[in-house]
Design brief:
The protein is an alpha/beta fold and about 325 residues long. The protein has 12 helices and 7 strands. A 5-stranded mixed beta sheet has the order 1-4-7-3-2, sandwiched between helices. A two-stranded antiparallel ribbon has the order 5-6. The structure holds zinc ion.
């Protein structure tokens, strides 16, 4: 089936509001980092592979960041059609192109995010990124559309926000090695094997949270303000000047792209680190004490205020999560 047919079938066109938006040609993956000034600063290695291995060995898990033989077996037994039916029952259209790894990982990610009461994506598609409007289609792993966007080459179809795409041209059968490589080059803040699905779902959860607080129009204006092509370089420089010295060592290099990436990178790590390593289930209080916790009103009102340059990273992220991007 052609992509446009899939979208015709699955996308409610009323989600298109505001001006038609062209993408800024960034997808999450092995992309060029736009901040030359940080090139000589490698990402923090306090959570090195070796540190992680040691910790996992202490927990008697001998596999790098989560992908056990049991999980590999479960993935190889995955009925992709049944996974799509599971998503369809929850009003999420999907097309995994028969990809068992992505189908299994997305279902598991949706269960985890659902248990944490985080919002879920609008739809999930596996597609050759050469069919999308992106500059580096061969390097991208995935993307979450954040604004109503004409994303498909040669089509005016407007893709609604919170729609996730994974690049079919990536070797997903090696998802654990991909996650390791991505982490090693600073593209991710965790080497957990599902880091990329977690990252894309984190974008959808973030946008969902913003829409719950501000409504769709205001949320999109806030996101657009940052992603708008004319404004982007200026906004990014300002963002890096104010927060780069905490974002880079505290999260990862890719988080320097924008406040939205900082949240997606960090939330993915928070969840990966908080899961039970055997069952992959999240404890109920996983988000308590993190920037993504829902604070009662009195705690929101009594929070300390800081100047931008002195704000501790968790408070920087709490502001970004709550839509205060500046
Ligand atoms: Zn991202």
């Amino acid at each position: 089936m052609k992509v446009t047919q899939i979208f015709n079938q699955s996308i409610n066109k009323h989600h298109c509001f505001g001006k038609k938006y062209r993408p800024r040609n960034d997808a999450d993956g092995f992309v060029c980092f736009s901040s030359a000034s940080y090139d000589n600063n490698p990402p923090d290695r306090s959570r090195t592979k070796f540190g992680m291995t040691t910790r996992l060995q202490e927990e008697k898990i001998s596999f790098q960041r989560g992908l056990t033989p049991e999980i590999a077996q479960a993935i190889s037994r995955t009925d992709v059609g049944a996974v799509s039916d599971w998503f369809a029952k929850r009003h999420m259209p999907t097309d995994f192109q028969g990809n068992q790894v992505l189908a299994w990982c997305c279902q598991k990610t949706a269960m985890i995010f659902g248990q944490l009461k985080l919002g879920l994506p609008k739809g999930i598609y596996v597609i050759d990124f050469k069919q999308l409007e992106y500059k580096n289609p061969s390097k991208a792993l995935g993307t979450c559309n954040l604004l109503p966007t004409s994303l498909i080459k040669g089509s005016d179809e407007v893709i609604p926000p919170k729609t996730i795409f994974f690049n079919s041209m990536q070797p997903w059968q090696n998802i654990d090695t991909m996650a390791d490589a991505h982490y090693a080059e600073g593209g991710s803040s965790t080497d957990f094997f599902m880091s990329n699905p977690f990252h894309e779902f984190a974008h959808a959860a973030h946008e969902d949270w913003l829409v719950r607080m501000f409504g769709e129009g205001k949320t999109q204006r806030r996101i657009e303000m940052f992603l708008d092509e004319e404004q982007f370089t200026k906004r990014q420089e300002e963002y890096q000047r104010k927060y780069g010295n905490r974002i880079l060592p505290g999260i990862c290099r890719y988080a320097l792209v924008s406040p939205l990436e900082a949240v997606a990178c960090d939330l993915a790590r928070v969840i990966a680190d908080g899961l039970n390593p055997v069952t992959l289930l999240p404890p109920k209080n996983l988000l308590v004490g993190t920037p993504y916790e829902r604070l009662p009103l009195w705690r929101r009102l009594t929070r300390s205020r800081y100047e931008d340059l002195k704000r501790p990273l968790p408070e920087v992220l709490r502001n970004f999560w709550n839509g205060e991007f500046e």
